[in-house]
User: Fold this.
Amino acid sequence: MTNEMIKTEYGNRLRDVEFIWARNSKEFLFANSILIRGNPTIIVDPSATFTYIEGLALSHSVNIVFNTHYHGDHRSLNALFKDVIYASHELDAPAIRSYEVYEKYSDSDPNSIYSQWRHQVFEKYHIQDCPVSKLYKGGETIETDTTQIELIHIPGHTPGHLALYFKNLDCLYLSDIDLTPYGPWYANVASNIDDFIASVDRMRKFEAKHYVTSHGERIYTPEEYQKKIERFYAFFQERDEKILELLKEGPKELAYLASEGIIYRKGALSDPLKAYFQWQMLQKHLDRLIRLKAITQDGFVYSIK
Ligand SMILES: [Zn+2]
Assistant:
């Protein structure tokens, strides 16, 4: 069997591994999924295409439901699968098992616009707690009769974010190091900007023949990947630099910085959810710049050092 990509009705297949694109489900909540046929049969992040994934669930052919991290858009169809083993990184498992923990990982303010949005979305899409029982740390290899999947811990976006390297296909799946033009997202309480930077830096140097992410319906060549991941990596520093530029004009409060287009374009900040995410991510940049001794904080006011 060759290592060539074959187009399927729902995505692209490389030997026994099918990447299922979320193209029919453009809502924010959905992400690409992966079906690994074999013994055992594994589905990764079931959330891409309801019809196909519901059919798989009803066929009882899937043995393991694997989540690359706890976010709702990566597991909105988890609960369709019965009599399966749920698996994830041990650090993200508590937030998949319990919505209460999900809340704590996500947001420190239970009344925020983000909290309200999360409640609505979880209710609307019937996203349910799942009894994750198979736990990983990263570094393990999952073997089926046809495929070997090395798990790579890439913390930052979430504490237990995992990438999957399909060894016999020479294909790296980066989940939410998603290479989209929006750049990296780390607006959760449990997100860690320094870990995220280190993870992207490690993945920049990861050599493979094919690269796939959870958002964007395509498979990247090494050349395309290198361009995309360098752009993605540069966002962290560009965001730091924009903050430092503004502070060069004089001391500023977070509220002022958050009114500027630093993470998102200024025009996009009329969306209260984006404005909230920007605020959370800016806070992480400011804390990081203090740790780097580039700025100081006096009460609510930040100054360049
Ligand atoms: Zn995510």
Observations:
- DSSP finds eight helices and 17 strands in the chain.
- Helices lie at 50-59, 93-97, 99-106, 113-124, 193-204, 222-248, 254-258, 272-291.
